[in-house]
Every structure is written in structure tokens, then in C-alpha cells.
Amino acid sequence: MIGTITTMTITEAQDERRSLMRLMAWLSPAFPTGSFSYSHGLESAVDAGAIASGDHLENWLSDLVAHGSGWNDLVLVAQAWRSGADAGLIDELGDLAEALAGSAERHLETMAQGDAFLDAAGARASITADDQGELPGDLAYPVAVGLVAGREGVPLADTLTAFAHAFVSNLIQAALRLAPIGQREGVRVLASLEPLIAATAERATEAGLDDLGSCTFRSEIMSLRHETLHSRLFRS
Fold first, then answer.
1. What does the alpha-carbon distance between residue 78 and residue 74 come to, in Å, rounded to a whole number?
2. Cα dihedral sign for 222, 39, 107, 148?
3. Cα 16 to chain center, whole Å?
């Protein structure tokens, strides 16, 4: 009896570690989605003087996560995870995610990353025991991540937390290249946002499509303005 319990515990622990490694791989800068080339309108915000310090960046990112595109993406991740790989539902979520992209560059950002993610995730699955058939194409990034995480049995709460953390981390890295914000300040901002990331991810586990909504208007405007910015480091 003791041996059986021990074996089950070891198996569960191994499954948890595999899930963790998958999330670390999928949402790592090394995973070929090209996330480093997008600033989500942050470049325009810095150019306009809206973000000039770590405190400015922290406030901007906290709004995105709790009330803006970051929140919407988490809801879409959760819905795609729950879809059970239902093709019709995934198509509907993909269309909705595209409609929520408020500018041409936001649309490019989510669709290009989604396609790249599915391509890389499909290549990974082809050399593991987790291949469950060919992945679809032309999906927005959060829908793609949610679909793959659900198919591979990665826990929803962990998926949402990792996705939100990667979203924030990527924008902090962009800010370090754009604004007079040092690496130590960037680390401080990331640490200060951890409670919000965890709480928002937990909220998203229970959210439905009726909970979608954004009120971060300045971020949307900055994304539109980026299309005509005189010089640019980023694609969005």
C-alpha cells in the first residue's frame, strides 16, 4: 500500500514538472514566436512622454493586466483551454480575438505570434508522445496558447499565471530598450506586479466571454499612433 501511494505521488510530481517545463519553453524568449519585436504600443507611449520612469511603467502595465488587453488575452486563453479542442469553438474564439485587436499592428502582433507559436508547438509535439493530431493555423496568440496547453493537460491556473507573467516581462524588456529605466528598476517593476499577476490569473480561471472588456484607451491610441511613428525599433 505504501509503495502504491509513493508511486502515485512520484508520477503526479513528474507530471507537474513536465507541465512546468512546457510552460517555461512555450513562454520563453527562446521559443520562436518573435515576441521581442513587439512593444504593444509601448514605443509610442515612451515617445509621447507617457512612460519615463519605472513608476510610470508599473502603472501602465498594471492597467493592461487588470483592465486592458492583458486581461482580455487571459480570458481568451482560458476559453481556448476549456474548448476541448472543439474546432468550431476554436474558430469562433479566433475570430473574436482578431476583432479585439484594435489596430493593424495589434492584429499583426497577435496573429503573427499565434502562427509562429502553433508552428513551433506542432514541431515539438511531433517528437514527443503528446502529438494529438495536426494543430490548426491562423489563430490569435492567446487562443493558440490556450488550445495547446489544454491539449497537453497543462493546468489552467498555471497556464494563465505564466502567460500573464510572460506578457509583463516582454513589455518590461521593451521598456528597458526604449526608456531611461535600468535593469534593476525593471526587476523591481516585475516583482511589484507579481501579486496582481497572480490575482488576475486566478480571476480569469472563472471568467467567461461576458467578462471581456477593456478601458485602457491610451494604450489603444498609442498602438494606433505607432503605425506612423517617425522611427521605430518595434513592429507594434
1. 6
2. negative
3. 21
Q: What is the pLDDT of residues 67-118, one digit of tens each?
A: 999 999 999 999 999 998 788 899 999 999 999 999 999 999 999 999 999 9
Question: Which of 207, 110, 117, 111 has the alpha carbon at shortest distance from 157?
Answer: 207
3-state SS track over the chain: CHHHHHHHHHHHHHHHHHHHHHHHHHCCCCCCCCHHHCCCCHHHHHHCCCCCCHHHHHHHHHHHHHHCHHHHHHHHHHHHHHCCCCHHHHHHHHHHHHHHCCCHHHHHHHHHHHHHHHHHHHHHHCCCCCCCCCCCCCCCHHHHHHHHHHHCCCCHHHHHHHHHHHHHHHHHHHHHHHCCCCHHHHHHHHHHCHHHHHHHHHHHHCCCHHHCCCCCHHHHHHHHHHCCCCCCCCCC
Rounded mean pLDDT, 182-189: 97
Helix axes 104-125, 2-26, angle to 10 degrees: 140
Write the burial class of residue 77 (CB in 10 Å: 0-12 exposed, 13-18 middle, 19+ buried).
buried
What is the model's pLDDT at position 7? 55
Cell representation of residue 162: 505564466
Render pLDDT for 202-215 as a digit per residue (tens, 0 to 9).
999 999 999 999 99
Residue 129's pLDDT is what? 40
